[in-house]
Write a structure and sequence with these properties.
homodimer; alpha+beta; L-amino peptidase D-ALA esterase/amidase; Ubiquitin-like (UB roll); 2 domains; seven-stranded mixed sheet; 11 helices; 32% helix; globular
Chain lengths: 409, 409
């Protein structure tokens, strides 16, 4: 049940190919991607819960296909809040891709990301789809262009692949790519997801993978928060085309561990690449009334602008962490609350109902040193139960403001 | 039923005096305040709903006095998350003030604001209380020093006064002061309040003013949001000492209009003085399923970092406003949603399910011009009912990050 990281990305599993092109939605940047499977792939899908859903999300939620052969994705324009014309444009993207790939429209998934409230330039989009469908290939180059073609304000491409051996000895590959930097606060539900992410695998799946996909989402993308703004366009898709052969992987723990590894890796990559982010914050809550309250508490902390700004400034202002806990609604016993900062070094900030050290003490120096690291772990024991939960986020920097003060201009 | 703005602040109503001193909690700045009433004042009180409550809030919620003679308030230290020693310190502040003013401790309210998780320097605090109790006076000078003594990161003092004539001809004065810049997301409940605010009046009240005070809170402080972080220390107090004489004002609309005018004025002053704020954002939602959903939608928009950063950058990225609406959970009919920006000029951003104008159009220029104003009104019709609600906030600037990246240092 070991999961091995390997080179490569979305086309690492057998039977998948991909392409990314510069269609012209953006000025001279990759902006249109196709992921293609030679065999029908069993699909699981999670969508944003934002009620202002983009046109491609409306279409995917309406059809919620259980099998897919391809996904067509554009960046630079979200096709969100674009009314009936937006719906027609999303349908057209699917139809043009189906035509070019000799598939039925229902066999093609569609997703968009970028500026909200603008109509897609369908002339260049259609030409881009035709070009991408001709350029489908396998291998590292394709993995890179396709992962770049779905990026918006991302500074880094997010792509990874793993292999694991199933109980029956079959070697299966699971790979993924994701985009996401701002408007990140996913609360994805299968059939109701933030950020775009695509996971491919050559494992055989027979049963409906959506319930397991929800569990994977809850342990990965639904744990991250960049700015508390859940997107209009989030979608997270699993495509399993069975090209590896062997026994079905539906109940094989090794398979789901591999999928979860990919999803967690992509989700953390999104959090650390949050707009303007300089640090990854991981909050681990224990001792909550239940797992749900633990997650709510962790999320409230990682979402607090005051906590995020303090981490950016390496200011050990732990009161803000506990204030965010207090706001979360989660139950806690302040006399049993224990707050620890970790990164190699570890320092207790609060326990037994009181601060653990005085201003300008040695311990405060250690806390400050931890906060200067690139990855900060906040451990918080609530003292009222056995619930545990995590949330991952990033700090709030000047660059977040800069990036978002002039996004459309 | 006209409410007249007058010069002056917290001591403008008859029978109130005040003082503010530099006790030494802060370095050479006003940090300790007393408000005193010659007569017993009927009290209404609203407190933060954050579960991590500061020691003075714990004490006030426990005793929830119906009558008060004085309030002792310090800034520079929140006395929050300070355990049993913090409780003892808050009790001591009240006892020392009572001793100095010849009152019972239960007749004195106590409040703190500032850094969380540090113990109060009780030596200087006690000396400051004694000094302030000797320096109580009425008039503009006292109004200014006391309002300054409760400030933390506030850049402006928040103080105002009005007069109105009751049905029986009695002229009553209502005045207030407030502090608050960061950690502002109040959701105050009487007997469960953000920001410190104190409203004094010489009107006679006979009935319990708490239910009416809740209504005033819901129309004023509970409408504002600077950063979504509800404080550990919020308290909002009304003190009515009856010194104006005349008939009880309990059911006099003119009186409550005057109180609401003061509370709204203070709340807007807090919003526009939000940490790093350059602009006031007022969101007015109409056509919601009910008033509660309208308030939730308005608050979700004014709390969105993406909306706030776009307003800072004067970027007419209206999709973020509708994305925030979608996240709020409030019901809407996208085909009937109408989004308008106003400030003298008015421009429709979205209606009939689609954006109202193309990028780089004349209308976009007007939208950009509106967003360059200091006060921006966002009007949003949801098209599903008759509910209305408002929220007031501010933009997200580089200075918000600067201020909060080094608050304790």
């Amino acid at each position: 049940m070991t999961v091995q990281h390997i080179e490569g990305g979305i086309t690492a599993p057998k039977g998948f190919s991909a392409a990314g092109v510069k269609s012209g939605i953006k000025k001279d940047k990759l902006d249109l991607a196709i992921v293609y499977s030679e065999l029908p792939a069993r699909a699981a899908m999670a969508y944003t819960q934002n009620k202002a859903r983009a046109a491609p999300i409306e279409i995917m939620m309406r059809d919620h296909p259980s099998e897919l052969r391809a996904f067509v994705i554009n960046s630079g324009n979200a096709n969100a809040l674009t009314g009936l014309k937006g719906m027609a444009d999303a349908e057209a993207m699917r139809e043009v891709a189906a035509l070019a790939l000799k598939l039925k429209p229902i066999e093609v998934g569609v997703a968009s990301t970028g500026v909200i409230g603008r109509f897609l330039p369908m002339g260049v989009v259609n030409a881009g789809i035709l070009q991408a469908s001709r350029e489908l290939q396998r291998g590292t180059e394709a993995d890179v262009v396709v992962a770049k073609a779905i990026m918006t304000t991302d500074t880094k491409m997010k792509s990874c692949a793993v292999q694991t051996t199933l109980k029956d000895g079959t070697l299966v590959t699971v790979a993924g790519m994701a985009k996401g930097s701002g408007m990140i606060s996913p609360a994805m539900r299968t059939l109701h997801a933030t950020t775009l992410s695509f996971v491919t695998t050559d494992a055989v799946l027979k049963a409906d993978p959506n319930p397991r996909w929800q569990q994977v989402m809850d342990a990965s993308f639904n744990v991250i928060n960049v700015d508390g703004d859940q997107s209009t366009n989030d979608i997270s898709a699993l495509l399993a085309n069975g090209a590896a052969g062997g026994a079905p992987a539906d109940d094989d723990p090794a398979f789901w561990e591999a999928v979860t590894t990919i999803a967690k890796s992509l989700a953390k990559a999104v959090a650390i690449d949050g707009e303007g982010a300089t640090k990854l914050i991981e909050v681990i809550v224990t001792g909550a009334k239940d797992d749900n309250e633990a997650r709510i508490a962790a999320r409230s902390i990682v979402a607090s602008n005051l906590v995020k700004a303090a981490v950016f400034g390496a200011d050990p202002n732990f009161g803000r962490i506990l204030a965010a806990l207090g706001n979360s609604g989660a139950d806690f016993d302040i006399s049993k609350v224990r707050l620890v900062l970790e990164n190699g070094k570890s320092v207790v900030l609060f326990e037994n109902g009181s601060p653990s050290f005085a201003p300008e003490s040695t311990e405060e120096g250690v806390a400050r040193a931890v906060l200067h690291e690139k990855r900060i772990v906040v451990r918080l024991e609530l003292g009222v139960g056995k619930g545990t939960g995590e949330a991952w986020g990033c700090d709030l920097s000047y660059d977040y403001v800069r990036i978002n003060a002039s996004y459309t201009t």
